[in-house]
Each structure stands twice: as C-alpha cells, then as structure tokens.
Amino acid sequence: QSQDRIFNFAAGPATLPESVLKKAESELYIWRDSGMSVMEMSHRGKDFVSIIEKAESDLRLLLNISSDYHVLFLQGGATTQFAAIPLNLCKPNDSVDFVVTGSWGDKAFKEATKYCKPNVIWSGKSEKYTKIPSFEALEQDPNAKYLHICGNETIHGVEFKNYPVPLNKDGILIADMSSHFCSKPVDVSKFGLIYAGAQKNVGPSGVTIVIIRKDLVGNAQEITPVMLDYKIHADNKSLYNTPPCYGIYMCGLVFEDLLNQGGLEQMSVEKSVRSLMNVPFTLEKSELEAEFIKEASKEKMVQLKGHRSVGGMRASIYNAMPLAGVEKLVAFMKDFQSRHG
Ligand code: PLP
Q1: Pocket of ligand 1 contains residue 31 by CB under 6 Å
Q2: Angle of helix 103-112 relative to helix 77-89, nearest 10 degrees?
Q3: DSSP 8-state class, residue 189
Q4: Is residue 277 within 8 Å of residue 183, measured between CB atoms?
Q5: What pLDDT, on the 0 to 100 scale, is given for residue 274?
Q6: Domain locations in the chain as residue ranges
Q7: Per the database record, which ranges form the Aminotransferase class V domain (predicted)?
Q8: Are 1 and 322 spatial neighbours (Cβ–Cβ below 8 Å)?
Q9: Average pLDDT of 87-94?
Q10: Residues 6+ apart with CB under 8 A from 136
Q11: Residue 140: CB within 6 Å of ligand 1?
Q12: Which among 36, 39, 250, 263 is most buried, taking Cβ atoms within 10 Å?
C-alpha cells in the first residue's frame, strides 16, 4: 500500500481496498461516457441502472445466490433491519427465537420486542459473551417464525463457524452478517434472510444489503412503513425511492475486486472459533493500554481502542486490511511486550 496511507483497524466504517479507492478516484468526475459523476446521475437513468444491476449480479456470483432470493440494496444500516425483519415476517403475536452471542444480537432482540414476541433461547451474557452455544442444546420453539443469530459479534469477537439448523415450522434462519459479510463463502440456501451494513467488508456506510428468500416477502404488518417493506423494495428493484447511489457504486467496485481476486474462497481460512474479523485483545498490565494505543498511532496504526462497552483493544481486519498491516501490528505487539515485560 502507498506510504502515506495508514493501517486503519477500525470496526466500521473500515478500510477499503486501495485498488477500489483508486478506481473510484479515476472515475470521480466522469463515469465512462456519461459525462458526469455517479453522484450526479439519475438513479433511474440507464447508467446507474447498469451500475446497480452489475453490483447485484456480481454479489450473486460471489455468494452463489440463487434466483429464489431477492438481493436488496437498502438504507438505514443493519439497525433498521432489527425492526424491518419482525415487521415483515411476523404478526404481533408471533414468537421468534434469538440466540444472543453479543451486544448486537441483544439489540436486535430488544428492537424485535416492539413488533412480535421474541424469546432469548440462549444468551452468552453471563459468560461475558465469549461463547457460541452447542446447537444440540438449543431449545428451539417449533412455533417460532424464525431463529435469529448474529453471525459475527463485532464488539466481542465471537463468530459462528457453522450454523444451527432452524427447527421452527418454516425452517427459517436469519443472520446479521454485518461484520463478516463476504469474508468467506456462505451457503445462502440455508438462510431465510441475511443482512449486513456495507461499511465493514464491502463499501462505505449508507448501504445495507438484504438477501431474502422470495417466499418470505409480501406479508408485512399493516403498520410497516413503506421504506421498511421488503415487497416494495423487491418490486422496485431497490429503486422505489432515491437509493444511496454512490455507496452502491462503491460496493459494486468492491464486489468486482473480490471476483478479480478469485472470489471469497481466497478471503479467509477457518481455524478456530475465534473471529477473524474483529480481534479483541487486552494487555496483562491493563494500565499500559493507553500507552499501547498512543505508540501504535505514532507508528501509523490507528483505531485500535476496544469498544467502549468492553474496553481493551480491538483490531478489525476486514478484507481490505493488507497482510502488511497485520504483520506490522504483530511485530509492534512483540516489541511492546519486550519493552514493557
Ligand atoms: N450488527 C453488527 C454485527 C454490527 O457490527 C453493527 C455495527 O457495527 C450493527 C449491527 C449496526 O449497524 P449499522 O450501524 O449499519 O446500523
């Protein structure tokens, strides 16, 4: 990477591939033969339609998404999906199951209580969110509308390496994949719905991706705002209102870049249950943490402070973090250790 770029370990918005940023820079003022920037285009014009269609088809290729699923490019972040999902899939008295392995799953659960009757069937809270449950031990409700998990807990660094089989009557598993989306291959056919904010692995903030099985669309509660109704977005190919055009364009560049690198098989290697995306760590002498962060920043490694709710440090190493960044951090950690014993 170029010398004047620093290694940014932030959990999101996060570092983007330099090649993608350079491509965007080269097209910033004039996109192909359109005579204008993507930021200035009509979202209904043929140029932008070609951009969003290519972004969708590249994402379908990357994740091998079948035509049984809609791919939607929405707004409002993953947080909005915490409400949209129960509004679209449940009636107010329907029960749903939540496995809560960290703060994000907990937030999704709390939001769902407004629109349906969610139950936490397993929580890692008493063990400070350091575990994934054994799937056999889960007491799933056969009448639940769906089973919700957070695939990778960004704050606690706990990642599902495989997924529970949903035992509810419609067999629907839903996953918040915000912080490991497109970091490795996923069998989409095992899910009813996958959602992710773009701003970690696949683009800038402002775009939220929802991949939903087509038969789950069209039964939203009557109070559902139009902007949260999946059917409206699906029927209008994510162009019901003005979408986050530039963000979608950037996501498209990232998808293209991932395909050029050989697809998601190339992105990660599964080793243990530790998250490969968000790596929280602490120092034996916790009083040295501020010094660690200060020295790292002098070495051009920033955003290593842990989430305010858990403290310590956290390195987020999404796809676009170069190996050199991780190597530099590891070398720095060893050096820091040897200097401070
Ligand atoms: N879910 C997970 C796993 C996250 O990491 C985040 C944000 O960091 C969110 C949800 C909230 O996403 P957003 O800020 O896009 O609403």
Answers
A1: no
A2: 40
A3: G
A4: yes
A5: 66
A6: 38-259, 282-340
A7: 6-268
A8: yes
A9: 98
A10: none
A11: no
A12: 250
CATH of 38-259, one of 3.40.640.10, 3.90.1800.10, 3.40.50.300, 3.30.565.10: 3.40.640.10
Q: Has residue 182 got a pLDDT over 60?
A: yes
The dihedral through the CA atoms of 84, 85, 86, 88 has a sign that is positive
Residue 77 CB–ligand 1 contact under 6 Å: yes
For residue 153, the ligand 1 atom closest to its alpha carbon is 3
User: What is the reported pLDDT for 272?
Assistant: 54
pLDDT digits (tens, 9 = 90+) for 21-47: 999 999 999 999 999 999 999 999 999
Q: Structure pTM?
A: 0.89
* pLDDT at res. 273: 57
Determine the average pLDDT of the residues in 262-277: 69
The pLDDT value recorded for residue 261 is: 87
* Same fold across 38-259 and 282-340: no
> pLDDT at position 2, please?
81
Measured from the CA of 102, which atom of ligand 1 is nearest?
A: 3
Helix (H) or strand (E) holding 238: none
CATH class of 282-340: alpha beta
Q: Is the CB of 206 under 6 A from ligand 1?
A: no
pLDDT top residue among 92 and 267: 92
Active-site residue (options: 104, 145, 184, 305): 104
Distance from C-alpha of 314 to C-alpha of 90, rounded to nearest angstrom = 36
Pairing of strands 69-74, 208-213: antiparallel
